[in-house]
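Schema walk-through. Below, the input block comes first and the output block second. Nothing else is stored per chain. Lengths vary across the set, and this one has 397 residues.
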Amino acid sequence: MALESTLNKEMIINVGPQHPSTHGVLRLVMTLEGEIIKDTKPVIGYLHRGLEKLAESRNYFQYLPMVDRVDYLSSFFCSAAFCYAVESIAGLKVPKRAEYIRLITMEFNRITSHLMWLTAFLLDLGATTPMFYAFREREDIVKLFEELTGQRMMYNFYTFGGVKKDLPEGWMTKAVDLCKSMPKMFDEYEAIITKNPIFMERTKGVGVLTQKMAADYAITGANIRGSGIDFDLRKTNPYSVYDEIDFKTHLAENGDSYDRYMVRIAEMRESVKIIEQALKQIPGGTPERLKVKSVNCGCKKEDCEFCGFDVQLVGKKLNAAVFKPPVGEVISMIEAPRGVITCYVVSDGTNKPYRVKWRTPSFSSVQLLPELIKGKNYSDLMPIFGSLDVVLPEVDR
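--- output ---
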């Protein structure tokens, strides 16, 4: 009798903040009754870096490198969100070639982010083999980023009005070759994961996110598309040159952890197709072709195929010391790997932002977690939390 009463008694435990499976420094205060989760309170703030307040004491160009740290796995997307906001206030027009370079790098970054999520998700469930598979392709993409920007993370490559430099010679050829090989590699992931009975047992029907719940918590990205809601900013509110690319969004119906996995796998395949189209359509073609044609063309017309607007990288040269966007405020939104990243910028006419505010998808996903795991077995915590693809630096801005 004493043993039975002990088993039925509620117990409060801490998961984290040092726990390796919380994808960052997060503390979950959980109330358990035996193996059943009765209540969960996420405790955030351990990584807070003041990225919003720091913007007010730096000029626009000084703050730009810090933007990469909002989500270190999606640096290009964070930079794009901030650049589009500032460009909108300042009335800067981005050259077409620069927009294509932004699109190509963002979609490659989407794949690297999803690959990192895949390795962490499977490690949470006790599977180590997929990590070695996924890091194989991720390394190839990161090498391309390093060749282009000089960095493997925190690239600081976008600038106001475009990008900082053109694609290196041979870069596009390497990108094309990688796009040809990646679908076969994705097949290898699926061969060991998708129909794996242990994986299916732990994820199917686990952590079901209903459409109403997703809307109530303002969930976006693959998490909401896994619940059957067709919402993708690249389609609903096109930016950059996405309206010139033929692609589709991928949905699932059940909204469980398994469906969120399937949507992200499909998104990686779709990103490859987007990159392949962009590499074919980029104005001016390869850097080698640009170099040859530029010698024979000096017209400087904005609509010229070989010089001028379409092959410029920065539409307007800016002086960091005197760059002062006019008074105004704007919100820019980007469809990042974890969902919609929103950047709100207020300018008071000086060379420093008056206010910068970020709204990130992982913050909403952490709020959602207690609802998804309530009443579930403790063993379901990691499949559910891992399927949401939370990155804590994005939560603790």
